[in-house]
């Protein structure tokens, strides 16, 4: 008996998650990069540890946020920093972040694969929170000597259980550590091979079954929605 669930990647409207097209669609749909599923993260976890480390180094500094999304995380540092610039490739995210900007917060739309659109040594601190790893090829140039570069990226074992529990709906994770290897390669090519790197694993609890679907279909849509058959029996009798 085949117990696999249907593979959503086979749908004609499926976009590869985190592709330029996928980010563009998400920007048009929601105007922000925010996870639609409900979950709870155990402490400590990489997200809270990363935020704590940023807090220690950005006070009164000129800061770059690489892959800022709609800018909520960027703007949260406004009261601490001298100036902060949020960079993202998706213009609809940037438009969402701009209207409520404090004076010391700005947003720039650019693709990091073309390099960072900033002057040499423009920033004291740069951080990359789940943003494009291609930025590591150029980020050293725009950070002052003695400045700090911080990064946080999904690990190779992210949600590893889901492909075992829901085969077909979630594809198996690739063998080895391809995410880590790509990250290390980018750091090395960007002159940052001496970077410290550690893995932080914790537990995320999805709150209800629908959150599994919300996670898998994050950022996906069709023109009118998912088409399913609507069927009724209509009865009419003359007595």
TrEMBL record:
Q: What is this protein called?
A: 23S rRNA (Guanine745-N1)-methyltransferase
GO BP term, example = methylation
Q: Which Pfam families match?
A: Methyltransf_25 (PF13649)
Q: Say if the entry is tagged with keyword Transferase.
A: yes
State one molecular function term (GO): methyltransferase activity
Which keywords fit this entry according to its UniProt record?
Methyltransferase, Transferase
InterPro entries, per this entry?
Answer: Methyltransf_25, SAM-dependent_MTases_sf
The Methyltransferase domain is annotated at: 63-147
């Amino acid at each position: 008996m085949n117990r696999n669930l249907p593979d959503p990647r086979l749908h004609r409207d499926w976009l590869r998650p985190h592709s330029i097209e996928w980010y563009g669609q998400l920007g048009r749909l929601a105007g922000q990069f925010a996870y639609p599923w409900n979950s709870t993260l155990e402490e400590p976890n990489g997200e809270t540890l990363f935020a704590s480390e940023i807090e220690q180094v950005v006070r009164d500094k000129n800061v770059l946020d690489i892959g800022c999304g709609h800018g909520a995380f960027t703007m949260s540092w406004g009261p601490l920093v001298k100036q902060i610039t949020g960079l993202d490739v998706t213009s609809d995210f940037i438009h969402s972040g701009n209207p409520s900007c404090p004076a010391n917060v700005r947003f720039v739309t650019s693709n990091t694969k073309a390099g960072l659109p900033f002057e040499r040594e423009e920033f004291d601190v740069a951080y990359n929170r789940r943003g494009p790893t291609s930025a590591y090829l150029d980020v050293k140039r725009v950070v002052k000597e003695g400045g700090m570069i911080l990064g946080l990226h999904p690990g190779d074992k992210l949600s590893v259980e889901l492909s075992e529990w829901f085969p077909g709906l979630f594809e198996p994770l690739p063998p080895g550590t391809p995410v880590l290897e790509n990250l290390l390669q980018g750091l090395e090519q960007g002159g940052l091979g001496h970077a410290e790197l550690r893995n932080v694993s914790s537990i995320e609890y999805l709150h209800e079954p629908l959150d599994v679907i919300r996670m898998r279909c994050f950022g996906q849509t069709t023109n009118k929605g998912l088409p399913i058959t609507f069927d009724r029996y209509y009865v009419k009798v003359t007595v």
